Amino acid sequence: MNKAIRYWNPHLETLPRESLEKLQLTKFKRIFRWAYDKSRFHRALYQEAGLHPDDIRTMEDVRRVPKVEKSMMRTVQRKDPFPYGDALCVPLDEVTEFHQTSGTTGQPVYQPDTWQDWEWFSECWATLLWAQGYRPHDRVFLPFGYNVFVAFWTAHYACEKIGCEVVPGGVLDTQARILKIQEVRATAMMATPTYVLGMADAAQKKLSLNPASDLEVRRITCAGEPGALVPSTKRRMELAWGAKVFDHAGATEIGAWGFECEAQPGGLHVNEAMFLAEVEDLETGEPITEAGRPGKLVITALDRMAQPCVRFDAKDIVELSDEQCECGRSYRLLPRGVFGRADDITKVKGVLLAPSAIEDVVRSIPGFGNEYEVVVDKKGDIDHILLKVEILEQNTSAAKELEARLRTELRVKTNLGYDIEIHPYGSLPRYEVKARRFKDLRHKGDE
Amino acid sequence: MASRVKEMGQLAQDLYDQSESFPAVNRNTKRILASIEVLRMNLEQVSD
Fold first, then answer.
1. pLDDT category of residue A434 using cuts at 50, 70 and 90
2. Which of A373, A408, A369, A411 is nearest to A390 (CA)?
3. Is the pLDDT of residue A432 over 50?
4. Can you tell me the ipTM of this complex?
5. A354-440 in CATH: which number?
6. Closest CB from B35, B43, B47 relative to A11
7. Which end of chain A is less congested by CB atoms within 10 angstroms, N or C?
8. Residue B18 host element (H or E)
9. Taking 70 as the threshold, does the pLDDT of residue A37 lie above it?
10. How many whole angstroms separate alpha carbon A354 and alpha carbon A30?
11. Which member of B31, B34, B42 has the closest CB to residue A12?
């Protein structure tokens, strides 16, 4: 095999735009018909909109197809067949992989995949890893908890597909992971930007190791947070590790849809042979096709079959570019990648956090008042959440127990740890119009 | 290459159809069929 070949798929990655768009329309028609025929949920949704598969002929028709939101999937999954509900398009016997979303915005959404879906998901990852320079000689260390969250599972299989040697760094703690990277002389790694920086910090402070000179990791792929396309964060990571750092974008319900290539163009390519990415105006929902205008991403996974992802409202903020990347791919670029969320949900330590989830917990415990304040900031390079709550006067003697309960319930509900400050009742700010109880101070120096 | 992938698919499908009472062949062939489908996607041509 010629390892110098730049593209994992020289056919698809360099298709002329016109051919690529025809391929996308062909695939969209196919997945739409599949969902219509096999999923009661999708068929009802489309019938309500007066759409039949034969009605989809052009991209303008595609834009008439109703979007699907995560909240709809939660309703779907209360129905049979357990646990996926009636958006499932294959017999349960054909489902071979279970994963779920983090559940920080509500009830987790379960994601079924068949062998074919899993091969397809891995293929998307193989495309991006090859584009970032991964080759069979790489020894790739994966420092993530192999569990119900999809995270880097398919990256693992993509590495195998490419022919890399995969070192699973599952339940090891941070120091043990760093020592294992050193011991096996890993050449590449994947993690959230927060963890990449946290590992570098731990290596220096706790193990007296300089990752840039004492370790051999020269290629890092990030996911879960936008940091790898935030210039200052990318720079910090690359300096700390002496490695090239690349971004990628994906989601449990969608797949690995975007990637930064080795040319590091300051944005993400959309894998347009496997996904259709549309951008909509945030206010009006009108399609945006021109470059440089931020909007909301609506995305279709064109080949995912068990639980189709058709015009999924990803709530990611992106903008299109007309620039041709020097890598030669015809896949369109999204400058800055995903640079925001359409609602107030934010990512902390790689986990989606909705302020409303915190509010729900605080106000479910009778000993606390209604007011609270959340401050997300960096302690060094690590995200840190401070939660301030008020205790009702009659409960002050039980403050420790209440704090312990709050901490536990927050962990369960949001999958995150918090520093908690308990304040006397009446001491936190009161708001008359719009409250600002959630303060994210992490990016105040980036502008 | 696309035509050879199609042939592989037909061969694997034949094996699968014959292997209902032979789990080791049946399950491995089913998995091969999944991989062949991804091969097909990789070589898909534009339809007009």
1. very low
2. A369
3. no
4. 0.93
5. 3.30.300.30
6. B43
7. C
8. helix B2-18
9. yes
10. 35
11. B42
